[in-house]
Amino acid sequence: MATIIVGIILIAVVALVIGIMIRDKKKGKSLQCGGDCSKCGGCH
Which pTM was predicted? Predict the structure, then answer.
């Protein structure tokens, strides 16, 4: 029973992280580039 509960919690956390990444991608943000070219040597 505990394995099932831990599995459900793990799936929920992964789904939440993926949802946040998709939302940020739609807003133009990403892990690679935050859009702040002052902190980046070779930005677009």
Answer: 0.59
